[in-house]
Amino acid sequence: MGMRIGHGYDVHRFEKGRALILCGVEIPNDENIGLLGHSDADVAVHALMDAMLGAMALPDIGRLFPDNKEEFKGISSILLLKRVNGLIKEKGARLSNADITIIAEKPKLMKYIEQMRKTVAEALGVPETDIGIKATTEEGLGIAGQGIAAHAVVLMENQA
Ligand code: MG
């Protein structure tokens, strides 16, 4: 199999009164805004899972974890990420590295980035040095004023 690349993208709309969870970390904020979604709406982990699955040409998370299924209501996306990692292990592969970009006009995410890297690395059983996470805005020009978007690029490799 060698090396395989994958890309994932996701967007979730802001919703008042929901917890904001990004890369498994709860981000408190003054506006009390979170993201709307059937699961915990962790848009960054959703992008990461789709990148990992895409690299392996496996069905995406919309097909694996349908949003009309009660069993996935409010579920932690980190839990789903562990399941995806298991599927990929079954295919004889492992994550080599991931690069995640979170696009958000608000709230400020910088001080949570290291905790996010730690949380994702632990869930996948890889060193933190294999997980890159950064946050950016769209300078007020894009859709990210109304929600949060995320891209993820991964490299997968044969398990030694
Ligand atoms: Mg999603």
Describe the structure.
Strand 2 and strand 3 form a beta hairpin. Helix 3 (77-90) crosses helix 4. This protein has 4 helices and 7 strands, in the order E-E-E-E-H-H-H-E-H-E-E. It has helices spanning 43-55, 61-64, 77-90, 113-124, and strands at 3-16, 21-22, 25-26, 33-35, 93-103, 131-136, 147-158. The protein is α+β, with helices and mostly antiparallel strands and 160 residues long. Magnesium ion binds next to strand 1 and helix 1. Magnesium ion is lined by residues 10, 12, 37, 43, 46.
Which strand order spans the largest sheet, edge to edge or round the barrel?
Answer: 4-1-7-5-6
Mean pLDDT: 95
| Relative helix content | 25-40%
- Oligomeric status of the shown chains? single chain
Q: Tell me about the biggest sheet?
A: 5 strands, mixed
Count of DSSP strands:
7
Radius of gyration computed on alpha carbons? 15 Å
Structural class: alpha+beta
The proportion of strand residues reads 25-35%
Q: What is the chain-wise order of helices and strands?
A: EEEEHHHEHEE
From the spread of the alpha carbons, the general shape counts as: globular
- Unreliably modeled segments: none
Number of helices: 4
N-C termini distance: 12 Å
Q: Which ions and ligands are bound to the chains?
A: magnesium ion
